[in-house]
Amino acid sequence: MSMKLSPIDHVDDISKEDFINNYLIPRKPLIIRKATQSWPALQKWTFDYLKETVGDKIVPLYDSSKADPSKPINASAAEMKFGDYIDLIQKEPTDLRIFLFDPIKYAPALLDDYRSPTNLMGGFLDKYPNMFFGGAGSVTFLHYDIDLAHIFHTHFNGRKHVILFDQKWSDRLYCIPFATYALEDYDIENPDFKKFPALDGIEGREAILEHGDTLFMPTGY
């Protein structure tokens, strides 16, 4: 028994025509290695710089525990100053993550440091970017985004292991009815096929994101 995980396609650059025809329309994930080459943020957004910019702001922190139906959606597990959190993830492994942090609200000049990939498609909420932070050991449980948007996810600092599944596999991934996340009783990297037999034969895609890589995640993945 096994799941088949094939590599996510990757390119250095891509034309609008190729992107639309080969990835956007067929809804196929893609990693663009050099989409950030013109971004000041590529070199500028170090941990120290972000600490200097928004380090005193209190941020909600999330762990890898199951969602609790009795709590408000996206209820946090803890709070901490952003600068203290950055110190924490550089010092030791932790499963605490920052989810949907909007630093632009506190430091609008950060908007000048990155570029939306409008050369590939339109429809970006440029004034509402969000940052996610996680240290060694942090895991985001299997889910899809509730707004079903196409996502361009740019990764800075360290490495990130990404596993993606097409929406067509939702039932066999044990997606909870009327929810956007799957049962968290199995480890997607090492599942128990006897306990969760529907996982056998599922096909997904995976990659390791490096500093500056941009992952295109089609709607529903």
TrEMBL record:
Organism: Mucilaginibacter frigoritolerans
UniProt-listed Pfam families: Cupin_8
Residue ranges of every copy of the JmjC domain listed in the record: 91-221
InterPro entries for the chain: Cupin_8, JmjC_dom
Gene3D superfamilies named in the record: Cupin
Name this protein carries in UniProt: Cupin-like domain-containing protein
